């Protein structure tokens, strides 16, 4: 399947070629048909001369940034809704709520 990109983000994955190209040049116009530089058709003729090395470096950077935020995604899944958190504070007090939140934060610490 082709990814046709014309200056708008298609978030297929942080390591996706098209995502990396758009991170390097938000106005890039390309068609990506595979996983190599030869699989990229530069509709706009690549005016910024983006290289394969730049794409690979940006893919690695985006992947690292995504992976470094895993703790946030895990915490978000486990946090109770705001409604439940406020209910906890109302019925059990702020210290009980803090203990519940701390348990989740301890389970998924920042890197």
What does the model show?
This protein has 111 residues and is mostly helical. It contains 5 helices and 3 strands, in the order βαββαααα. It has a 3-stranded antiparallel β-sheet, with helices on one face. α1 crosses α2 and α4 packs across α5. The two termini are 36 Å apart. Mean pLDDT is 89; it is low at 1-12.
Can you lay out the helices and strands and say which pair or pack?
Layout: E1 3-6, H1 17-24, E2 29-32, E3 40-42, H2 52-68, H3 70-78, H4 82-92, H5 94-107
Antiparallel strand pairs: 1-2, 2-3
Helix pairs in contact: 1-2, 4-5
Q: Write the H/E string, N to C.
A: EHEEHHHH
| Residue-averaged pLDDT | 89
Q: Estimate percent helicity.
A: 40-55%
Whole-number tally of structural domains: 2
Report the total helices. 5
Largest beta sheet, briefly?
Answer: 3 strands, antiparallel
Uncertain segments = 1-12
Record the strand order, biggest sheet.
1-2-3
Structural class based on helices, strands and sheet pairing: mainly alpha
Shape: elongated
* Distance from first to last alpha carbon: 36 Å
Whole-angstrom Rg:
21 Å
Task: Please provide the count of β strands.
Answer: 3
Please provide a brief summary of the model.
The chain has 111 residues and is mainly α. It contains 5 helices and 3 strands, in the order βαββαααα.
Descriptive labels:
53% helix; single chain; 2 domains; 3-stranded antiparallel beta sheet; 111 residues
């Amino acid at each position: 399947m082709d990814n046709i990109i014309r200056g708008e983000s298609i978030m297929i994955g942080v390591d996706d070629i098209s995502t990396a190209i758009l991170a390097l040049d938000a106005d890039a116009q390309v068609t990506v048909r595979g996983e190599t530089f030869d699989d990229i058709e530069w509709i706009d003729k690549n005016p910024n001369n983006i290289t394969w090395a730049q794409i690979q470096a940006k893919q690695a950077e985006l992947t690292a940034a995504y992976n470094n935020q895993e703790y946030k995604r895990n915490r978000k899944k486990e946090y109770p809704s705001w409604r439940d958190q406020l209910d906890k504070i109302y019925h059990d007090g702020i210290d009980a709520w803090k203990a519940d939140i701390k348990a989740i934060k301890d389970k998924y610490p920042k890197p």
